[in-house]
Amino acid sequence: MSERPRIAVLGAGHVGPAIARVAIAAGHPVTIAASGDPAKIALITQVLIPGAEPRWAADAVEDADIVVLAIPLHRFAAFDPALVAGRLVIDTMNYWPPTDGVQELFEDRRYGSSEIVQRRLARSTVVKTFNHTGYHELEAELRPAGAPDRRALGVAGDDPGAVDLVAEVVERVGYDAVRLDGLRHGRLLEPGGPVFGASMSRPEFERAVSAEAA
Ligand SMILES: NC(=O)c1ccc[n+]([C@@H]2O[C@H](COP(=O)([O-])OP(=O)(O)OC[C@H]3O[C@@H](n4cnc5c(N)ncnc54)[C@H](OP(=O)(O)O)[C@@H]3O)[C@@H](O)[C@H]2O)c1
User: Fold this and answer.
1) What is the pLDDT of residues 144-196, one digit of tens each?
2) Ligand 1 proximal residues by C-beta, below 6 Å
């Protein structure tokens, strides 16, 4: 029996399956759900994410230690916060008006998108990561700990215990986790920020975020 945290991935588009695959490879039990009947994702799960268990979203979350939210932000307004109440939620989502359209909820530029997600998921603990790397790179760029070309990923959250747990997942999957001080610094990981889409080592990443956070 695995002692790795159980991960439920909500979203079976581009990002969800990529995260599910790397999590399975790292030894995590993984369930995955889209917005509806798991029968609709049974075949792609079997072919693209062997080892993951397709479920209804509520069933996927039920026994999960960590929930990965990998849905487009234009679908977030219809997402029921009660589904993930009391859960640690990894927010992989980006606000991208060219594809999401203008979403009033995310137009308040005083806040990063994950702060807005956290406010709406008030009974969950939100940690932002995996949002600033392309889904197609996630497997190609992972490396074992200590590899000279291992890439860094930022991990931002307000709850230090939750950040530690998520950072362990990031490290286990194959990236150096760089902890950012609070969800508000998750803005540094967003589109237009200094590390978005960039492949950087830990020192490069730390320099890039500290220059902006200063
Ligand atoms: N593309 C990238 O490289 C990349 C990288 C990092 C982060 N992101 C971010 O990751 C998020 C997902 O992007 P994507 O490209 O994977 O999107 P996508 O391909 O459009 O996939 C969307 C998935 O979300 C599911 N979904 C929607 N509402 C749901 C709900 N309430 N519960 C469960 N599942 C739900 C959809 O299920 P149905 O088919 O049943 O509707 C579908 O499986 C976005 O916010 C994006 O900004 C993208």
Assistant:
1) 999 999 999 999 999 999 999 999 999 999 999 999 999 999 999 999 999 99
2) 10-16, 33-36, 57, 70-73, 75, 79, 92-94, 96, 131, 134-135
Residue 116, C-beta contacts closer than 8 angstroms, at least 6 positions apart: 105, 106, 108
Q: 199 is in which domain, residue-wise?
A: 7-213
For residue 10, how far is its CA from the centre of ligand 1 (angstroms)?
A: 8
Protein residue with least CA distance to atom 37, ligand 1: 34
In the chain, the amino acid numbered 184 is R
Residue 25's Cβ-side half-sphere holds a number of Cα atoms within 13 Å equal to 19
CATH number of the domain within which 90 lies: 3.40.50.720
* Backbone φ and ψ of 182, nearest 5°: 100, 155
**What is the DSSP pairing of strand 152-157 with strand 176-181?**
parallel
Q: How far is ligand 1, taken at its centre, from the CA of residue 69, in Å?
A: 8
Number of domains in the chain: 1
The pTM of the full predicted model, rounded to 2 decimals, is 0.97
Q: What are the structure tokens assigned to 34, written together?
A: 């889209």
Instruction: Please write the tens of the pLDDT for every residue from 65-92.
Output: 999 999 999 999 999 999 999 999 999 9
